[in-house]
Queue: 4 jobs
Job 1
Amino acid sequence: MTYEDGPAAELRHEAFRSLLGAWALDACPRREAAELAQHLAGCPECAEEATRLRNAAGRLSPDEPLDPAGSLRQQVLDWCLARRPARLPVPRWAAPYATETAKLDALLRDLGPEEWQEVAELPWYGGVQRWRPAEVLGHLTAVDGYLAPGLGLPDPVPGAPVAVPARVPAQSTPGAAAPAPEGPAAGVLARTARLLAVQRGADPGTVRAQWRRQSHALVRSAALRPQGGAVVDFGFARLPLRDAFVDRAFECWVHGDDIARAVDYPYPPPLPRHLRLMVDLAVRMLPVALAAVRPPLTGPGRVLRLVIEGPAAGEWLIPLDGPGTGGPQVAELVLDGLEFCNLVAAHRDPDRIPAGEYGDRTAIRDVLRAAPLLSRP
Amino acid sequence: METAGPVPSWDEQIHWRLARGEETALAELYDRLAPLVHGLAGRILADQTAAEQLTREVFGQLWEHPESFDPRQGSLRSWLGSLTRRRALDRLRLDRTDDHELRERAGAARAQYVVDSLPHPLRETIALAWFDGRSYRETARQLGITEQAAKQRLRLALQLLATELADEEGES
């Protein structure tokens, strides 16, 4: 850029003036900074403001304050609650959802405009959804919305909850491996598509606010009626409210992690006691998936012992021959809790996951291959 | 609702819910204001462990004594900010930090607090240009605004900062 002498002097003066903030922050290309320095030498008015702004910039610290570590949140809450117990506590089964939604929200707070445009990959057993962070939030809002009516909250998804034709919604990537969704995924994807259609063109901040408002309202409603016995109809499954909250916490974590991978941010796993609730729910749902890979026998009620290691450590007996665990234990499968959850979310290959395997190989393989069938978009 | 006044603000609602003992209110409060409290505490104390301890105490103070905040006297944000600042400086005094150092830390925290209080568009622009070290052109591109707008925001943000800091020095 060059400036000519002549009648444009006043314009040039204004142009230099407007550059003073960027200059004081060292945010000018070198050449513009040099030209401005020349101008300052002959313009007391600009020079005065330049000094003032430079001094102000000098008061800025060289870096932004560090965000509080994620682990501090629970420490602060525990510290407070130990001093004054809550009169309306968050039910134990809603705590994972409260924590996971807060963790995702903290990640979203740090996203810049470019990062809101990144595309996250959300694998599930039927394929991969490719969504921007705001679309992931729309998806979470839509599916969390299954819990809303039972808690006296409005359903965020417009239109009556009708059975939907099995078709690939507009948001899934053309040519992706996802088959035309049927079964469990169809209703979820259709709800998502309806909400995304409404949210199209909306500012990410607005989408985030809607998701956050609903998640706050869900937890608050759960705290106000903490029995958790009401039944939530997901279309493909009916779960007690207490399980539904754990399910939603699980999905919030998994999709939060999907977003974090897309923008290359770290994303810590759930707290051990929350992870344990998630593992427990998945284990209880496993027999349904198992029936799909392994026609139930009217057999002797054989069981597989699942040993979960790591912070969510525990043991579960998984019935292999339909309901009933009275028969012999034919196999033992040892997995890390996080890895098990990732497998259930179809984020791991069941044939490659590191596991300790003892006993009946077929039974073990069937369980490993059944787990990802529990995943949904 | 008992009165037909305006819709209660977020501050008023949270305050009422804290007084009522709602754990969810405590969590929402933390999620919104922990970056401010923890950031200020870290700035003044320059010690991660001490900053976390102070963050616990500040939220604990409000949770245990919600009546100590009066929404009619100002925002929760500025109330928590000044409580944090006061307590952090008290702690430095206990540690016999010398006066010069104390003033310097307080000043840095003050600048941070002013930046935190800037309108969001100004804050995000200054964050990109200063903390991320981008030129105003890159900043404009990143934010999807014109270069002229980026320059204006940077200048305005520094003018506001300069004015706030000058006012404060005039007071003390």
Job 2
Amino acid sequence: MPEGLQEYQLHEINSRNGTKPATFALRRGIGHSIAQHGELFQGQIEDDSGALTRCLLSLPCRSLSSTAEFTPDDSGTVIVFPPHKTKAKTVVELTLAYFTAHPIGGVLHIRSSIPEAKGYGSSTADCVASVLSVADALHSRLSEEEIARLVVEAEVASDNFMFRSAVLFAHRNGIVLEDYGKDVPPLDVVGVDAAEDELVDTLRHPPAVYSWQQIQSFRTLSCALGRAIRTGDTCLLGRVATASARINEQFLPKPRFRELLNLAEQSGALGVSVAHSGTILSVLFDSRDPLLEQKRERLERGVDQLGITNTFRFRT
Amino acid sequence: MPLDAILKSYMPQLVPLEGHLTAAAFPLMKIFPAEFCLQRAKKEGWVNEQTLVVETSSGNLALGLAIVCKLLAHRLTIVSDYACDGFLRRRMEDMGATVEIVPAPLVVGGYQGARLQRLAEIRAETPDSWWLNQYDNSSNPAAYGQLAALLVKQLGTIDCLVGTVGSGGSVCGTTSYLRELFPEMITVGVDTFGSVLFGQPESPRTLRGLGNSILPKNLDHSLFDEIHWVSAAEAYTATRQLHRETSLFCGGTSGACWLVARSLAKRYPKARIVAIFPDDGYRYVDTIYNNDYLREHGLYLSSLPERPHEISSPLDAVSEWSRMSWGRRKLAEVVAPAFSEVV
């Protein structure tokens, strides 16, 4: 721990939480985040007053992750490694400012297994891990809502896997529209990337301009989504994901979408979901399905025959 | 008055009936397309605060529009004919609508033609006017996203939808939204004899509130798997039986819909079936709910038929409940072969 940090700064940090001021030495903080494999749903819904809100629900992917390590100092500046993770730098600065007005800085190291610009939410994962590492360094805790607001402020648009339960997340406002109070039901996923060489920059890719008819469709889809998660209805969840993917195909087409959709149907999958800012596609199966192995093998044979080699399996 | 709160009071009750059949029973379904079409027109700039809203209807769409225009403070003129009963007219006028009744049918075009002619005159006199046009306005079917959302929220997967067809709005709209989730969902349309909607030659119709003498643009034939034709006597008897058995107090179209839906519930006992009941029974106290009226008009049946006549062409549907497999075909695909058979 670097020398020279003033104890009064720490008083202030702790008094924010309404606890009795106490002194701690700042420490090295660690934060961790899972990734996603595209979104099960993404759209725009209209509330009773006619206001439109963009929202999504991530397909969580726990086999990929990002870890951030934050070593605070009193330099007042933040240095990030690797240096191109500029959103992580921004979110660390925002988090420090959120906790204290005093010029704490530090060094952030990110280690991530998540590919970038494919739809895995790599930048959200980096940001979530970074926020958690800063909070840890300051002996503090943040609510999921606070993390979400900080991450969206840094990223403009983020994914929702900072929440433990499944939520319908307004990814450009940083607020939860609906908390389903449950996890996404257990899914076995075959992830497909039919555009290995393509990358999608979330901020450069313009948000989809949905027609008012499509916004009407999202009303039905979001109601079905809520029911599917609350009741653990994987079949309905697959239907919602497929319908959402079909609508969004118009705005960010996936290579071989039609063929993969047919394959999913023929193999008895629940449906497909896509990355709305990325290239990956997920074929969804019910983990509790006794015929899971046969169905998945049938799908993988078909994918292989399409000449797509880049696939990966995971369970939610 | 807050329109949203009033609209919520018109949301349908989802009533479980026999087997896995659920009725979506509306007090006045047509208030939803009326509201949705008007709001769309405002968003698209067709309607401002001064605009006169006009529509030709002798039924529930007119009443729904009168309610919405009252709550949104729009002027409204309804052009109607003899079929507009006094009860309906008084309710609309109570809420500030102007109701014009055309005195006589046109020689060519009938009452429908006379109504459209008067409507054209009003629109010529008042340039700042907007015609809702429920038959051809694509916002009418789009209004049923709300119903589709409610159904999936409450019931989950839906296997079969049954509804009476007049403008095509409710059944086609609800089907389109639900099929985005359930492409294999079976849609069953209920029509009546003498209606041209599904290929019958036009003739006077006793049963009102469904069927049509013209083909609305909002009717997409290729959405339907199966069509039934029901007579007034059958529909009214079913309406009364529905009331006797369940206490549901509905209009005649609901009875027609129930007759068909319960036969499907028997045929597919495991299927989740939804039947759309478009209105409540108050307008029909002196007619459908009056035994003397039914006997006088030969509309009283001692019992309902158990099952429909199975037919293979719309021309074979004559006077008793008939069922035909439609197979998601266009009208021409169904009618042209039928025509060649007749020739």
Job 3
Amino acid sequence: MQKRSFIFFLLFTLVCYEQLPAQRQRLRDRRYEYADRNLPAGQREALIYLDSIGSLPASPHWPNVNPDRFLQNLRTFALTPLRFYEGKGTNFCAYSAITYIPLHYDPPGFARFMIRLYTDGEAEMGRARIKPSKAVRNEAGLIKYKGALDISPAGQMWFLSLADHFKGYLNFFNRRFDKGDENTLWASTNFAKFNRMVRRLFNYKVKARGSDLLRPWIGNIYQYLKERSAKGPVFLYLNNRLLYKKKHTISRFGIPTHFVLLLDIYTSPDGKINMVYWDYGKKTLQQVTPRLLKKIIFGITHFYPEEE
Amino acid sequence: MNKIKNSILVTATAAFFTACTYSRHFTTTYYKENEAALRAVRKNFAALYRIQPFSLEIKDKAATLIGLELHTDSIKYVYEFRLDEPYFFDTLAKYKFDIRQVSELVNAMQAAHCTWVSLLDYYENYQPKNLLFISVRHKDLTALLKPEKYFTLAFFNAPQPYDEKNRLLDRTDKKANRKINDAVYRRINDSVFYALMEKYR
């Protein structure tokens, strides 16, 4: 009996020994593949890190997040960061907008953070220790009918964890998560909360103009945005009901409801302004008049990545 | 004299409450009355969508203002055109759309009071699917003291499950209501469902 066990042990060791170089070779091949694809160094590093993990056991902290799908999501985030999607009809736009920062400036850091959050149920990013509540951990992976967010349990984890951790005055009457709260005030973000999130999560020096009710006092808003966006990312807090109409009724009382990342802004020959912004997992190019641009913008947040 | 006063009061009250409610008749008869025009919308939209994914909006009753969203792999272009300017047709030509077919689509949308048509993505058991989404703007859906409603239609590619109250069900568990844009949809036929919504997209 002992002899048979010994033979099994020998065979097992031999198989492992045979497979290790093969696995190493696979990882090496992947490195070359990422280099061939001309991916930026950060994205490449994140993918190599995720490949090195191989597979994960199911986490007891996130009972409805499948580990294979979770890893697949993280690979997708690293490969195509601009496809990051907040889900149809949710109030996750602020969290989605700030996700541009880690996916653009520190993809491996973001991947490591997500792996820790999955395995330990809590993790640290910048000055924030994110420890989501049980209700939120149970919900991640179950959000449905939100388009591509349905198949992104990792995205659901990230959004729910941020909404659970950061609170502003809009969340005052709904502080605890209940099913369906991704569409309610529980998930919403006011301008001050948005800026606080950027400061705490990424340790950047953030400059913000504007507020939740009054527009920023800037003479030439186009020029201001043009200059700032040339130096670093600019986030806009805007009245989406005017920019992207979903009703025909005209409301005189305009308030901001949506956060986007401004990628580019320039004038067209007919005097209109073309703005390229990122939201809902896609870049959008939209033409607006200078008057509408001034009317829709309530908040402008920018930071300089080199200044911490 | 009192009787006359009372009857005037009753009639006025009834008229007031009728003005404050939407026509129920509309939701039951609209589809039958506009089936041919809706079929033309579906046919033309599907053919044009194969050339380039897009969504189309008719912004006013006379169809002089058109909203066009063009979806490419990397970027979405949001345009607003006046039909008395050449830019709309220039853009259609640039993306190799058949202009005659676009005109047919706009005419069919106008005939069926459609204000918006698009293709919506959704997932079932991690498999991507899509449905055609049409919003109808009609004077019968406006009421005094109430916000305007839109009659929205979801055209699926296959028959869908529904419960005893004709509400669309989730195909995976056949218990929960399957929502589209956060609204519960009701059956018109096995693959067409409707909901009254406050937004058209």
Job 4
Amino acid sequence: MSMLDNCLIHLDDVYFSYDDVPVLQGADLCVGRRDFVSVVGPNGGGKTTLLKLILGLLTPQKGTIRVIGRPPEQARGEVGYVPQSFEYDPRFPVRVRDVVLMGRLHQARPFMPYSAEDREAATEALEQVELTELESRPLASLSGGQRQRVLVARALATRPQIMLLDEPTAHLDPAAEHDLFELLSRLNDELTIIVASHDISFVSRFVNKVACVRQTIAVHPTDSVKGELFADLYGQAVDLVRHDRQYPGGHNHD
Amino acid sequence: MIEFIEALAAPHNHFMRLAFTAALAASVACGVMGSYVVSRRITYLAGGIAHCVLGGVGAAGYLRAVHGLSWLEPLHGALAAGLAAALLLGMVSLHAGEREDTLISALWVLGMSVGVLFIYATPGYSVDPMSYLFGNILMLSGRDVWLIVGLDALVLLVAAAFYRQLMAICFDPEFARIRGLHVNFYYLLLLCLTALTVVSLMSVVGIVLVIALLALPAASASRFSGTLWHMMVLSVLLCALFTTGGLALSYSTNLPSGATIVALAGAIYLLLVVGSQVRSRLAG
């Protein structure tokens, strides 16, 4: 059991289905401290479901999930979440700083303003994503890449140990995508990061593990020879991810 | 316009001053609640609540006439139906998923039909349903105006107490839930406040006008607002402009006041939409 103690996030034989549609069937996962994991897999294959299970927004029908040794709902205070960008209204009348302060909502009391600590956390988060000079701008006036960084700052303002990002680059151009992952790489010095992504070849330059989700979860290291081609879950050739060797905490396909 | 101001000042025109005061007071609740309703994109749900209120009005009138419940006024029925509809439609929207719009439509027409049937079945209760749809702002009592002022106080109190919480559940309910907010509670609170706004203003300006005053000033204001707070202030001002302007227009043209106010608000909103489209075409 000593290996499990090293798991910051641990899924053990997890089953989950929407009504009659099975999404995860016997999924196992161990994410260690300061891992940078990319979750890949076919659309509708369970990437978002996996993130929502870790957040405790969904409950598995079978199996256990532990986040920092606790049930997911009780660990939410330690988890920063960046949702898919199209799930909110970009025209909503709100300033950048107010969005970031939403990361401190757990501290909000009726009639009371945000505390000095809350404001400091927001300022710090804005510095980390390099948006300090835009803090008074309406969110609607920002570019897609900047908006995505605002949502990262909002998650950072909670001062989490773990960051979960759901398809953060889905609507970004390649330059903004690259900038975002550079930022996540820097944050990875202190934080454990899980990113759901459909773009496996790009992200594997930054992450140290790739978790392939298709009903079960297979974890692969990315410290392999670059450019080498391997068959992946889609049955197509995809580079930069090794599927051919044992890895502690992971397992092989086939 | 000058004759409208003269009419306001005339000593015998007490009803005109009451209507003017009611229009200004109604603008506060409508502007604040409208900003939430528009930014949360639930104007359709607010419309559903408003029409269910008619069912309560009809039922109260029927019970009063047939079962001799003389203490029961239409307002009581409206209040009960409005809050019940807010909770019911809120639960539907939280749990129905993709069928949400169909279920809301069903409750919308059901509430309204029930109201019309009750009014029809009530002996000696010859109320014109039209008066509930468009109201009659020129037939208000002082009590009606105090009711709106009371509503304003409640709406402002809740909006001030839970400004950030309500903003968060409008902006991104899922994130708010993860941050430990009782999202469903705040959502139902929002809908119940919307129901109270609808009920207090229904006797004044009618159901159709309430929906218009909730949606149109806030939708117009959102085009010029950087924050929800700005949107609320601007909505209140626009709402006051639409209602008093419509009232003055209806006085000088001798047209029905409720419909004139709605037509003015709708026309200005559509002009803003078309205007900004044209501007962005020209700029692009």
